[in-house]
Amino acid sequence: MDKSGILVTEVWVMAGAALRLKSLLEQLLEAELPIRIRAWDGSAAGPPDAPALVVRNRRAVRRLLWKPGELGLARAWVAGDLEIEGDFYGALALLSGLVWERDDTRSGLRVLRDARTRAALFGLVRLGGLPLPPAPPREEIRRVRGHLHTRRSDQRAISHHYDVGNGFYELVLGPSMVYSCAYWPDPDATLEQAQHDKLDLVCRKLALRPGQRLLDVGCGWGSMAIHAAREYGVSVVGITLSQEQAAYARKRVADAGLTDRIEIRVQDYRDVADGPYDAISSIGMAEHVGSEKYLEYAQDLYRLLVPGGRLLNHQIARRPMTDESAYDLDEFIDAYVFPDGELAPLGTTVTQLERAGFEVRDVESIREHYAHTLRRWVANLESGWQRAVRLTGPGRARVWRLYMAACALGFERNHLGVNQVLAVRTPESGASGLPLRARTWN
């Protein structure tokens, strides 16, 4: 090692771990850290008034070195190797430009050519912090080779996300048990009121009337089915791939005295064969479909509708990329939250619906509503943290806190969107059945 490298190394060995970590992270991320670092030896470095990223042990260093960026940070967070002190949202916002909003697939080993980084790593080795990469936390899904979005792979992905215990979802979602963007009449409304208003908005957009048949694709815990049957007098078939959701929804239906009007099935949308239906709701389900299967999804729903029937497709969107045909897979969300989930730009979704034969009649963007919804869910989780840990384990609870808070920021900063697309299977006569004045929903 040259003379300058030896001098730098001596500084790293003498300094506290936090200063060494700060320099190493800045080398790996190629940017100055806007957040404070506090290390396992009690040392700290960085802006004194900023939120602190607490590095609890040397294992966190190995995770970040071997997988710089989002996935390494997520693994360290889920395993409890990292913590955030201070403003949680503020810390995520400061880190987002360095981690979530950059395209970085480099291995940490590529930066070892830099003498200063080698010196920093030498100091970490002296602390016992470097060797082989740790195994991923057990909450990370184990990949199985094969094609995406087969019936079997979709069943497995849905089970990973939804079959974590209904008690946990009760804690996070509250009494409404609706796991999709609420529709807020005002910021001070209760979460339950906002979810009620969302369900009612969907029913009005679909123009539901007594005696009609509604197919609820991805019915969750049955909230949409119950609202539509009770308030609008329709018969509902709700489908889900989650056994736990189906059992919970059936009990709710029975408790509401609606078993004569609601059927809950564990069924893939591709296997529904008892159409036609007068209306279809798909709320927060299409994100699971995937780019290769999306046209098939749209064609299947088109086939299941009567002429003049309406589809309400409520779906998260991402901003367009350079390659308009590409779908974006988020490393953390794909590994821990929604395996195989794919987000498309709004324009791509509308195009696929039109290719399937639908006439798209209305698009409503409600992304600010989702940011508000997510912050309420995070607040529910944080206030019931000990119970959440007992129900799912600390790793899973940490996954959900990071996921929901980061997504809230994504919607607030216009990196994510969510849209309700109303589409019609317009008959050959051209009579869509919609009112002349938009958004009266009668």
Automatic annotation (TrEMBL):
<dbReference type="GO" id="GO:0032259">
    <property type="term" value="P:methylation"/>
</dbReference>
<dbReference type="InterPro" id="IPR003333">
    <property type="entry name" value="CMAS"/>
</dbReference>
<protein>
    <submittedName>
        <fullName>Cyclopropane-fatty-acyl-phospholipid synthase</fullName>
    </submittedName>
</protein>
<keyword id="KW-0949">S-adenosyl-L-methionine</keyword>
<dbReference type="InterPro" id="IPR050723">
    <property type="entry name" value="CFA/CMAS"/>
</dbReference>
<comment type="similarity">
    <text>Belongs to the CFA/CMAS family.</text>
</comment>
<dbReference type="Pfam" id="PF02353">
    <property type="entry name" value="CMAS"/>
</dbReference>
<dbReference type="GO" id="GO:0008168">
    <property type="term" value="F:methyltransferase activity"/>
</dbReference>
<keyword id="KW-0443">Lipid metabolism</keyword>
<dbReference type="InterPro" id="IPR029063">
    <property type="entry name" value="SAM-dependent_MTases_sf"/>
</dbReference>
<keyword id="KW-0808">Transferase</keyword>
<keyword id="KW-0489">Methyltransferase</keyword>
<feature type="active site">
    <location>
        <position position="407"/>
    </location>
</feature>
<dbReference type="GO" id="GO:0008610">
    <property type="term" value="P:lipid biosynthetic process"/>
</dbReference>
<dbReference type="InterPro" id="IPR020803">
    <property type="entry name" value="MeTfrase_dom"/>
</dbReference>
<feature type="domain" description="Polyketide synthase-like methyltransferase">
    <location>
        <begin position="168"/>
        <end position="409"/>
    </location>
</feature>
